């Protein structure tokens, strides 16, 4: 065996990350043990599952995570009989972290209250590095299950690490921490056991602490979800939730039930009380853990649809074989029935909690964007999801539902009107709303990117069609405006074709509109095509071709349009005026003029003419 020691530099700012972990989280040092023990237990779980296929040896009888303090050597060892790591995996898993993850961790660390900082370790996948809070040198020896060779990783946390060949009799991983002078209390078995009971009591893998040559149990190892609800305290639920999700907040909702009948399973699910620092928008798969007879099988069974991926938890069943494969999971009708039952139970819980508006608003602000994906991904649940939606509105403060909107609809109003854009503050000031406000017609303001997609898929609510105010020709004539709210309209029958001719192939149509009050023009999308926000998103993605030309709508009551109508009657040229109107409409919607220099020239000339 080669004795060569390879020296490597840490990748992507790990040195900076280590400095942050060691110093910024110094007062929360004990969480290093939580992280290392949880990682070890996960490694054992992964080996158990892989061994079911016969591809690798099974976990030895009584296999446990061992925590071994050595006062004389001043070392603390965490050893597991888990899946182990290859040389390449040691270098990748322990030597690099994404640069973007480092920046996000740094920012979140600066913003998080001191009491929330322990949760950052698990959420950003940097739990291993917390070892350097108590150790000035860390050595990891690992042997991959099914492989003969072992490798050692070592570092003092100062910017580099070494890799060298090693020996290990059995597969698994041992982490040896050479403790700092002020970390001697982590060599006391009583102290170690108290930390494990606090953070890892519900881990089903046995954890032991060595004391006077004997391995003593340190965790209860009971599957909490199998206990009667009457025997579980709120504190126990919270501790398990925090362990499961590597978080530190309180769950917003806890769902614990046993299903009996056609299928038998027990579920313990949590809806988080805060949005994770690592956004769920980026992770597209549900990670609810599937257990069979208490043994962890996988967190990739898709037990909940992706639009409920913010839910954490465990589903345990007796109705699947222990040696179930991932391929079998996708095909078995048992799992399909469990998925339906679990999804329906979560939806039911959300409906119940939605009745408390203030409490539900906290959930919506955290996970509403993700929930809306279900309107697009799961049409079979769209009616249920529609009841759970909340929106900002042009008419009321706070959040409102579709049902509340319908209850406020004006006499003669035929549709639910929505306006999609990038920010609710900008949407509230949009000229697109002027005619609606004049008639007291409410418009829902949609500012998430997903809002450009789902309205067309949902189509209607309580038999009322959902219409974008920027799509097609919105007719408000059936909704009466208060007396004096609108000026008398000018005759623009001569003006409209002249504007269309001047703009030629830049717009598909020029027409009069009654949905403007204080603005002379506004853009709309052609009937049947995507609305303006969808067109913007497609353009940003480089897929703007085929969206169709916009419609220019003019306000026949505005003084500028009145003046142009008079000018049109005298056959005066309107090319510059038409171009200026189109650019004004674009700027109002947050877009740039077609030719910024020409736009500035026209504005300056018009301003000078008005002063003359």
Please tell me about this protein's structure:
By secondary structure, this protein is of the alpha+beta class. The protein has three domains: 5-217, Histidine kinase-like ATPase, C-terminal domain (Heat Shock Protein 90); 224-356, Ribosomal Protein S5, domain 2; 391-611, Rossmann fold (3-Layer(aba) Sandwich). It is 36% helix and 19% strand. It contains 21 helices and 22 strands. A nine-stranded mixed beta sheet has the order 1-6-5-4-7-3-2-8-9, covered by helices on one side. It has a five-stranded mixed beta sheet with strand order 10-11-14-12-13, sandwiched between helices. Strands 15-17-16-19-18 form a five-stranded mixed beta sheet. Strand 5 and strand 6 (160-166) form a beta hairpin. Helix 1 packs parallel to helix 4, helix 2 crosses helix 6 and helix 17 crosses helix 20 (575-588). The N and C termini lie far apart (93 Å). Mean pLDDT is 85; it is low at 98-102 and 115-125.
**Major beta sheet summary:** 9 strands, mixed
Task: Identify the strand order in the major beta sheet.
Answer: 1-6-5-4-7-3-2-8-9
CATH fold field value of the largest domain: Rossmann fold
How helical, in percent, are the residues? 25-40%
**SS class:** alpha+beta
Number of helices: 21
């Amino acid at each position: 065996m080669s004795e060569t020691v390879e020296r490597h530099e840490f990748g992507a700012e790990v040195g900076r990350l280590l400095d942050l972990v060691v110093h910024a989280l110094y007062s929360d040092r004990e969480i290093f043990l939580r992280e290392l023990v949880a990682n070890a237990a996960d490694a054992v779980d992964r080996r158990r599952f892989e061994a079911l296929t016969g591809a690798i040896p099974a976990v030895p009888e009584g296999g446990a995570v061992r925590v071994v303090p050595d006062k004389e050597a001043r070392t603390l060892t965490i050893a597991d009989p888990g899946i182990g790591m290859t040389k390449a995996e040691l270098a990748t898993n322990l030597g690099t972290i994404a640069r973007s993850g480092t920046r996000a961790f740094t920012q979140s660390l600066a913003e998080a209250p001191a009491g929330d900082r322990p949760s950052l370790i698990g959420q950003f996948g940097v739990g291993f590095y917390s070892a350097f809070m108590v150790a000035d040198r860390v050595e990891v020896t690992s042997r991959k299950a099914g492989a003969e060779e072992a490798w050692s990783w070592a570092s003092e946390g100062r910017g580099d690490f070494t890799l060298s060949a090693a020996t290990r009799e059995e597969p698994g991983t041992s982490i040896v921490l050479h403790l700092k002078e002020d970390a001697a209390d982590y060599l006391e078995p009583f102290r170690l056991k108290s930390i494990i009971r606090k953070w890892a009591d519900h881990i089903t893998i046995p954890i032991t602490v060595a004391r006077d040559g004997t391995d003593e149990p340190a965790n209860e190892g009971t599957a909490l979800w199998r206990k009667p609800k009457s025997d579980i305290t709120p504190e126990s639920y919270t501790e398990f939730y925090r362990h499961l999700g590597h978080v530190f907040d309180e769950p917003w909702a806890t769902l614990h039930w046993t299903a009996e009948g056609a299928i038998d399973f027990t579920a313990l699910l949590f809806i988080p009380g805060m949005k994770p620092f690592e956004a769920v928008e980026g992770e597209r798969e549900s990670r609810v853990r599937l257990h069979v007879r208490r043994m962890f099988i996988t967190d990739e069974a898709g037990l909940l649809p992706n639009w409920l991926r913010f839910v954490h938890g465990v589903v345990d069943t007796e109705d699947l074989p222990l040696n179930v494969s991932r391929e079998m999971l996708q095909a078995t009708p048992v799992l399909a029935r469990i998925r339906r039952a679990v999804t329906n139970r979560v939806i039911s819980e959300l409906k119940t909690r939605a009745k408390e508006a203030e409490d539900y608003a906290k959930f919506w602000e955290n996970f509403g964007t993700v929930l809306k994906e279900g309107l697009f991904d799961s049409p079979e649940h769209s009616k249920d999801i529609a009841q759970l939606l909340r929106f900002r509105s042009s008419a009321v403060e706070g959040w409102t539902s579709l049902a509340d909107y319908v209850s406020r609809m004006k006499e003669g109003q035929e549709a639910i009107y929505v306006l999609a854009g990038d920010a609710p503050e900008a949407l509230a000031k949009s000229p697109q709303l002027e005619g609606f406000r004049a008639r007291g017609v409410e418009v829902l303001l949609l500012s998430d990117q997903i809002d450009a997609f789902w309205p067309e898929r949902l189509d209607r609510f309580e038999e009322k069609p959902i219409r974008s105010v920027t799509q097609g020709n919105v007719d408000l004539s059936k909704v009466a405006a208060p007396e004096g709210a609108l000026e008398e309209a000018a005759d623009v029958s001569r003006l409209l074709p002249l504007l269309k001719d001047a703009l030629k192939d830049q717009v598909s149509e020029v027409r009069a509109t009654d949905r403007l009050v204080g603005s002379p023009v506004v853009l709309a999308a052609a009937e049947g095509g995507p609305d303006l926000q969808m067109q913007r998103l497609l353009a940003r993605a480089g897929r703007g071709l085929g969206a169709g030309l916009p419609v220019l709508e003019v306000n026949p009551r505005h003084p500028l349009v009145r003046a142009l109508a008079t000018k049109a009657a005298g056959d005066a040229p309107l090319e510059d005026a038409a171009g200026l109107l189109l650019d004004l409409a674009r700027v109002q919607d947050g877009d740039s003029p077609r030719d910024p220099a020409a736009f500035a020239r026209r504005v300056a000339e018009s301003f000078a003419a008005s002063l003359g």
